[in-house]
Amino acid sequence: MTDTPYYLLMQQARKVLALRDGARLTRKARRYAIKRAVSFLAKKFHLTNLKQVRSVHLQALAGDFLDDGNSIRSVQNYMAHIRFLLRKSGRGQLLKHPTVSNFSLGISGGNRGGVREPLEEPAMAEFARQAGDLESGVASVIELGYFVGLRVQEAVMCSHDLANWESTLRQSKLELPELRVSRGAKGGRLRQAVIIDVPKTLDAIGRAREVAASTGGFLIPGELPQAIARVYSICSRIGMTGAQSPHAARYGYCCCLIRHLHGKGWTEREALAKAANALGHGAQRTDWVRTVYGQTVRDLWRRGG
């Protein structure tokens, strides 16, 4: 179809891809990064024109590249290609804004660890408080990221699951109950999110249900692309960017889970596999979870603490 967001964006991108700037391998890498970005922006935000790209879209794109398991340097290179696309498309002014610097996008530095700073609960609570002053649904997105490990899109779309989640937690007799996450899951991969602190999670779910009840059944009103952009916009206003972007709440969830399992006597590999499954990456991604998500706890088993 010639009127889909992806087709319309690619029409513009092809003009840049046709340029002969750079060596052959550079052009090949540029082609991959731009096609990947166009697919993300079209699917996630329904953009149809590069003139619609804003800083919140670039923040979400960088986070998505990272969530795919790419190294910091790889994401820096990908975003350099996206900047090339925007510059050649007349969007150079956008690139001068500090919110799209590597630091603000959470991709400064050069090693795979240190992508985000896992939020500790006091910092998360303060961000949620500030966000709640602007829009209560964004506060719930932050809280659900921390207590359930939800991605932004999953949290925005979870309102219809909240009642079932609350019932599951109240009825469960398990030490570590699990919640089924399906709506908005990346790649359509269903997963079971492990819940560490049931009382606090129930409180967060209860607040989210109150928000949804007051806004027509959704945490963030409006179409999905606008709702996701709204979350990033408000988080940017309260300073939740860069190393402490919304995704950092999910990092905090992962670190809490790993610390809890370590304290219960789980082996390192068992704990990392459990965390990888809970995050939706699969048990085979244990080394990656240790490096990227578990950066503050990766030495627990080595120091015996």
Automatic annotation (TrEMBL):
Q: Look up the record and give one Gene Ontology term from the biological process aspect.
A: DNA integration
Instruction: Write down the species.
Output: Luteimonas aestuarii
**The keyword Lipid biosynthesis appears for this protein:** no
Q: What is this protein called?
A: Core-binding (CB) domain-containing protein
The UniProt entry's coiled-coil ranges are none
Keywords of the record, alphabetical order, are:
DNA integration, DNA-binding
**Presence of the UniProt keyword DNA-binding in the record:** yes
Which Pfam families does the entry mention?
A: Integrase_1, Phage_int_SAM_2
- GO molecular function list: DNA binding
Core-binding (CB) domain mapped to chain residues: 1-90
